[in-house]
Write a structure and sequence with these properties.
Layout: H1 4-8, E1 14-16, H2 25-33, E2 38-41, H3 47-60, E3 65-70, H4 76-86, E4 90-94, H5 99-107, E5 111-116, H6 119-127, E6 133-136, E7 142-143, H7 149-159, E8 164-167, H8 173-181, E9 186-189, H9 191-194, H10 203-211, E10 217-220, E11 228-231, H11 234-244, H12 249-256, H13 259-264, H14 289-312
Parallel strand pairs: 1-9, 2-3, 3-4, 4-5, 5-6, 6-8, 8-9
Antiparallel strand pairs: 7-11, 10-11
The chain binds ligand TUI.
């Protein structure tokens, strides 16, 4: 089996999470230049926007990068046309089954890595020719499934014969080491990159991540069938209240309109939709993307070295 670094063409087996309206060329090129796979999140954006972003990433790095296509978007076909025409190195997908697009992406020479939250779909996309899968546990930020990273990664690793990349709850070297113990061969990290210096999200959003503790996130949207993990602020509490009291879905949708922009552009910590993973409580400071990557893998390597030394000496770990 090819390694994740071979599949991605990167120094480190790490993919930057696709964060809608946040993951654009600045962050993507910084992550790629830092030895990971930077990702442009195309969800909610136009084909022209995406073409321009791809150009800007290419101006800033000669390293591989990827585009994430969120499958609930109404312009998926147009976005697929753009990535095929531009021959982007890697495409990741989210929020659905990318099965019907895989053959076309492969024909264009693109590496395809679906981000999934259950084993059934992983088996299906592996059969359809995906190069690797991201197993995203419910600890992740944004649109989530129900299964934890701890339970999902080993089950997905047993079910497919392509590499599994773990996501959800990983923000330091311990998370990487743990993911490998579960059978993953790489990681996808979103929340920690939110506070990368190159990440253009408003300071209020970054501050909400840095201030967060273990219990600061909650999943809204269960009533609509699309649970989304966010920071538990005034907006999230109002949505949860409405959901609990069987509130009108239209009213909930109205309440949510424009809230991602309020968070991303204005940094509105009360009324913005601040998507975040459960691991935000571990994220303490802004750093350059390259520094984050180096630090995470140095920590993971040290864990392996220390454990080996202790085991060889015959002492209890
Ligand atoms: O897609 C993500 N994370 C996202 S997408 C997003 S934008 C959005 N905002 C509000 C509502 C919905 C989307 C923000 N964060 N991660 C990968 C992921 N995929 N998580 C869960 C899934 C998933 C869910 C259902 C994948 C497949 C799926 O299949 C349903 C089916 O067709 O069987």
């Amino acid at each position: 089996m090819k390694s994740v670094c071979e599949i991605l063409g990167t120094k480190y087996p790490i993919i930057q999470g696709a964060m809608a309206r946040i993951a654009e060329y600045n962050l993507a090129s910084a992550v790629s230049n830092g030895g990971g796979l930077g990702i442009i999140a195309a969800g909610g954006e136009s084909a022209d926007w995406l073409r321009d972003q791809i150009k800007k990433v290419r101006e800033r790095t000669d390293k591989p990068f990827g585009v994430n296509i969120m499958l609930l978007a109404d312009n998926v076909d147009e976005l697929m046309d753009v990535v095929c025409e531009e021959k982007v190195p890697v495409v990741t997908t989210g929020a659905g089954n990318p099965g019907k697009y895989i053959a076309r992406l492969k024909e264009a020479g693109i590496t395809v890595i679906p981000v999934l939250a259950n084993v059934t779909l992983a088996t299906r996309v592996a059969r359809n020719g995906a190069d690797a899968v991201v197993a995203e546990g419910t600890e992740a930020g944004g649109h989530i499934g129900e299964t934890t990273t701890m339970a999902l990664v080993p089950q997905m690793a047993d079910a497919v014969d392509i590499p599994v990349i773990a996501a959800g709850g990983i923000a330091d070297g311990r998370g990487i080491a743990a993911a490998y113990m579960l059978g993953a061969q790489g990681v996808q990290v979103g929340t920690r990159f939110l506070v990368a210096e190159e990440c253009i999200v408003a300071q209020g959003y970054k501050d909400a991540i840095i201030k967060a503790k273990d219990s600061s996130t909650v999943a809204t949207g269960r009533a609509t069938g699309h649970p989304v993990r966010v920071i538990k602020n005034k907006l999230a509490k109002r949505i949860l209240d409405l959901e609990k009291n069987n509130g009108d879905l239209e009213e909930i949708n109205r309440l949510c309109t424009g809230t991602l922009a309020a968070a991303v552009r204005d940094g509105d910590a009360d009324n913005g939709n601040i998507m975040s993973g459960q691991i935000a409580g571990l994220v303490k400071k802004e750093q350059k993307a390259a520094e984050i990557i180096e630090e995470m893998f140095k920590e993971a390597e040290k864990i392996y070295e220390d454990r080996n030394r202790i085991c060889r000496a015959g002492r209890t770990v």
